[in-house]
Amino acid sequence: MISVLMSIYKKERAGYLKSALDSVYAQTLKVDEIVLVQDGEIPSALEEVISQYPDLRIVKLKQNVQLGRALEAGMKVCKHELVARMDTDDIMMPDRLEKQYQFMMEHQEIAACGGDIAEFTGEDMILREKHMPTSPQDLYRYGKKRNPLNHMTVMFRKSAIEAVGGYRHFPGLEDYDLWSRLLANDYQIANIPEVLVKARIGDRFASRRGGWAYFKRYLQLRKEQHQIGYLNTKEYIVACVLTFGMTVMPEKLREKAYAVLRK
């Protein structure tokens, strides 16, 4: 009884989408609902791939509204309490959903559960694995400085997400914004210490996470984390300094920093 939630927009690649969907259908635990949000108009190549999966539940948005709003629109039509996120260019490990479902059934106190990822290139070459803290206590502390869950690996309880306001428009930080609100409202999150998803890394991965525009959006998130009581004043200042350092450093240095931090 799981809904899988995905969102597609015009710049995605047809081959990547097919690989992502195939990995969902190949799960050891079968799901009866896959919600795919079409965020605005998409090219015929993507439409052709989608047509090969007639049981997809399609949510069509007339205009591109970006990821946060698109996922919120999709979540509203998910019929199950447990919702698993998946990106349309990544690949689930075959037993991902089975492991998370068992974990969520055994830990009713957990509102959202993620896991590790194996980052790979378009040539299917694994670059590195990103391992995350696992316990709710460690993740509460970790989230004060860094995103505590890998978004494409997360399974969450829909009722908890709705209780804190759902997904919002926060480009590049939609998930971190959501987890911060969960933690500020005393919900618990966890990670399974296993690779659950192979995550595709583009050539400009580091560049998309830098620059003044990205820093300003991140600074707004830090302000909100402070306002909702997740960060105290000292933690807020430290988080802002760390964010400034990571986002405005030269791209080459940021690439090296990410390579170290994500090991």
Question: What is this structure's SSE topology?
Answer:
Layout: E1 2-8, H1 14-25, E2 33-39, H2 44-51, E3 57-61, H3 67-77, E4 82-85, E5 91-92, H4 96-106, E6 110-120, E7 126-130, H5 136-142, E8 155-157, H6 158-163, H7 174-184, E9 188-200, H8 212-227, H9 233-248, H10 251-261
Helix pairs in contact: 1-2, 8-9
Count up the helices: 10
Q: Please identify, by name, the CATH architecture of the largest domain.
A: Alpha-Beta Complex
Nearest-integer average pLDDT: 92
H/E series: EHEHEHEEHEEHEHHEHHH
**Number of domains as seen in the coordinates:** 2
Helix vs. strand class: alpha/beta
Number of beta strands: 9
CATH topology of the largest domain: Spore Coat Polysaccharide Biosynthesis Protein SpsA, Chain A
**Dominant shape:** globular
* The first-level CATH class name of the largest domain: Alpha Beta
Poorly predicted sequence stretches spanning 5 or more consecutive residues: none
Helix content: 40-55%
The CATH homologous superfamily of the largest domain is termed Spore Coat Polysaccharide Biosynthesis Protein SpsA, Chain A
What kind of sheet is the major sheet?
Answer: 9 strands, mixed
Structural notes for this entry:
The protein has 263 residues and is of the alpha/beta class. It has two domains: 201 residues, Spore Coat Polysaccharide Biosynthesis Protein SpsA, Chain A (Alpha-Beta Complex), CATH 3.90.550.10; 60 residues, no CATH class. 41% of the residues lie in helices and 22% in strands. The protein contains ten helices and nine strands. Strands 1, 2, 3, 4, 5, 6, 7, 8 and 9 form a nine-stranded mixed sheet that branches. Strand 2, helix 2 and strand 3 form a beta-alpha-beta unit. Helix 1 packs parallel to helix 2 and helix 8 packs antiparallel against helix 9. The chain is globular. The protein starts with a strand and ends with a helix. The relative contact order is 0.14. The model has no long low-confidence stretch (mean pLDDT 92).
